[in-house]
Design brief:
6-stranded mixed barrel; 7 helices; 12% helix; globular; disordered N terminus
């Protein structure tokens, strides 16, 4: 009997693994998820049409859809971090390790690096909802129990039957995306995340479009700044700030890479987790007038050659899988990668591409590994698709920079100082880095109730603290100053409507 039980457990585990990792992992992957802006979060969809929205219109593309698994949940089987786990509904995830710092949440992913989410407890029952970690979204919503469509019943839902403390208002909300929409009523309830308990307003979706059927998350955790919407719909961080739950209103993000079998995904509130990065954090101030996490981009380098970009800005978005660039900028980058070929708005490139690719913010160069910008094979194993898409997301000089970049750095979003910091991730392979003169990142050290952390305060980055995956350089000062000036003047005139939100 004991042997029979063991065989049953092993078979169940193997079934779980094959449910999470399809027969052809090169083309079957969970799609990148949607955020509150007029374009979809990008990810491959298996044979289903996807829609790219932008300020100038809507463009359709064929993406790849991840098949929804309907394997049986494995009860009582405890798996270590990094193992594929079957949820009680029809969606899988790969577990992250427990957080190493207080006021932190583990960030899990779908096993393909296309979506990252955290388990957040809602209501008096503490029901766990798996929420997309989205710094590009300003508002939070969950799939409500009043939604009876298959899309909702396939996910975790939340409603009055799950909580005696929920307060549902008569005000409606309506969010429209490039690839779908949700609508319902606004609600307020107790939410516990990262050891912090707050009374949080959020959307309770009773109508969810079929576009969400392939997405593993049960809702979106909006971690962006206040959106460019005049209605009163407080964000997560605004609610936390009002409750004075943290000594500093900042967010540290560490996204793991599945191909490395890493399980250190973590979302830290109040202070960055110093165990997840090495060297120093270098900050860039958010653009004046922008309601998003948007910072000036100095330039990009491919194969050691500067692309000579000027006047560009980057919207830093954890909820977007890829990088979306205006077509001319994507063409410039791929022209420096040997063997790269255009295929409409996407690019194909040799699967063995190893061309170094870097983004430069405030004088500091940050590597993007080929493991992140080279995606799945298209024919055999010689040519692969690129994770850098030639799709203009908004204005001509704006880039949408998602997880392709963010997996390579530790990121800090400072709500109080309105700035973003990057540092080299901990325990990365050594490469050569040459410390030069002081970059133009914002100076000053910040402290918190957890621990102090360093910022770019020294004129040079000492050799013994130089980040292996972050090289320090000094861009041309006149170019950098002109870039910042043009961006700050132009941003005030931009009307970026990332979402249609109606509070009636």
């Amino acid at each position: 009997m004991h042997l029979l039980y063991c065989l049953q457990v092993i078979c169940a585990f193997v079934a779980c693994v094959f449910a999470l990792y399809p027969d052809n992992p090169g083309i079957s992957a969970a799609p990148a998820v949607v955020g509150d802006r007029p374009y979809p979060k990008l990810g491959p969809n298996h044979g289903a049409p996807g829609v790219y929205g932008s300020a100038s219109g809507v463009v359709k593309m064929t993406l790849k859809r991840h098949p929804v698994s309907r394997a049986t949940n494995i009860k009582g089987l405890h798996l270590s971090p990094g193992s594929p786990v079957k949820r009680d509904n029809h969606y899988d995830f790969v577990t992250a390790s427990p957080p190493t710092q207080t006021n932190s949440e583990s960030i899990h992913n779908d096993g393909t690096d296309f979506s990252y989410f955290a388990g957040i407890d809602f209501g008096s029952s503490g029901k766990t909802m798996y929420m997309l970690v989205d710094t590009g979204a300003a508002n939070t919503w969950v799939m409500g129990s009043e939604c009876k469509s298959e899309i909702c019943t396939d996910h975790n839902t939340f409603g009055a039957s799950d909580s005696t403390s929920i307060e549902v208002a008569s005000k409606q909300f309506d969010l429209t995306y490039g690839t779908g929409s949700v609508s319902g009523l606004t609600a307020t309830d107790t939410v516990r995340l990262a050891g912090v308990t707050v009374s949080l307003p959020f959307g309770l979706a009773s109508n969810v479009s079929a576009d969400f059927s392939a997405y593993p998350m049960d809702g979106i955790l909006g971690l962006g700044p206040r959106a460019s919407d005049p209605k009163d719909f407080p964000t997560v961080m605004e609610t936390i700030r009002k409750a004075k739950a943290l000594s500093r209103n900042m967010l540290g993000v560490n996204l793991q890479r599945s191909s490395d079998s890493s399980t250190d995904g973590e979302l830290s509130f109040g202070a960055p987790d110093m165990t997840n990065f090495q060297g120093k954090l270098f900050y860039t101030n958010n653009l004046d007038g922008s309601s998003k996490w948007e910072i000036p981009l100095d330039d990009a380098k491919v194969n050691g050659r500067s692309c000579n970009f000027t006047g560009k800005s980057a919207i830093i978005d954890t909820g977007t899988s890829f990088m979306l660039l205006p077509p001319a900028d994507a063409k410039m980058i791929h022209s420096q990668i040997p063997g790269a070929q255009a295929d409409g708005e996407t690019y194909n490139l040799p699967c063995k591409s190893r061309a170094p690719f870097q983004l430069i913010f405030s004088g500091v160069s940050y590597d993007i590994t080929p493991a992140d910008y080279v995606r799945s094979p298209i024919n055999g194993d010689s040519m692969c698709t690129s994770n850098i898409i030639g799709r203009r997301p908004f204005e001509e000089d704006q880039w949408l920079v998602g997880d392709v970049f963010l997996k390579n750095v530790y990121s800090v979003f400072d709500y109080d100082e309105k700035r973003i910091g990057f540092a080299a991730k901990a325990n990365k392979p050594s490469t050569t880095s040459t410390p030069l003169s002081r970059p133009t990142s914002s100076p000053g050290a910040a402290t918190s109730s957890h621990r102090a952390f360093a910022s770019a305060e020294n004129p040079t980055l000492a050799a013994d603290t130089a980040s292996p995956s972050v090289s320090v350089g000094q861009p041309d000062s006149s170019t950098s100053a002109a870039t910042s000036s043009r961006l700050r003047k132009g941003t005030k005139a931009l009307a970026l409507f990332w979402v249609t939100l109606s509070v009636l």
